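[Discussion] Sanity-checking designs against the backbone

I'm trying to build intuition for which residues belong where. Below is a structure token string of 117 positions. I'd appreciate it if someone posts a full sequence so I can compare it with mine line by line.
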């Protein structure tokens, strides 16, 4: 069982930066694939970035070169550094943990990121 809690969202002007954090309560955090998803009003939830237990990453094309996902297994944390933010990045951002071997999947409650146009 893993409980996820996001923080770090807020209002930022275009071109600005934010760092989202996700703290996990639970065991064997290092075994999970960790991801950040986002959902804008009226749109489906989409993958933003993902990092495996080994540190391999992948990103949505729309954020490549601007966002960086990282993890700290010792402290059960995953981060999303967001630079050069655009109005289209406005969404609720969710932290996700997936255990590949068992398909266990957990979600945080989400944190709002707003970039005004």
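Best answer:
Here's mine. Compare freely.
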């Amino acid at each position: 069982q893993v409980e996820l809690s996001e923080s770090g969202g807020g209002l930022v002007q275009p071109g600005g930066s934010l760092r989202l954090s996700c703290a996990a309560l639970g065991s064997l955090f290092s075994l999970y694939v960790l991801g950040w998803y986002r959902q804008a009003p009226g749109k489906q939830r989409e993958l933003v970035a993902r990092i495996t237990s080994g540190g391999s990453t992948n990103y949505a094309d729309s954020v490549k070169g601007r966002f960086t996902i990282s993890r700290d297994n010792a402290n059960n944390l995953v981060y999303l550094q967001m630079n050069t933010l655009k109005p289209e990045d406005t969404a609720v951002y969710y932290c996700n943990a997936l255990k590949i071997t068992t398909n266990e999947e957990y979600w945080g409650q989400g944190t709002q990121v707003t970039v005004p146009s």
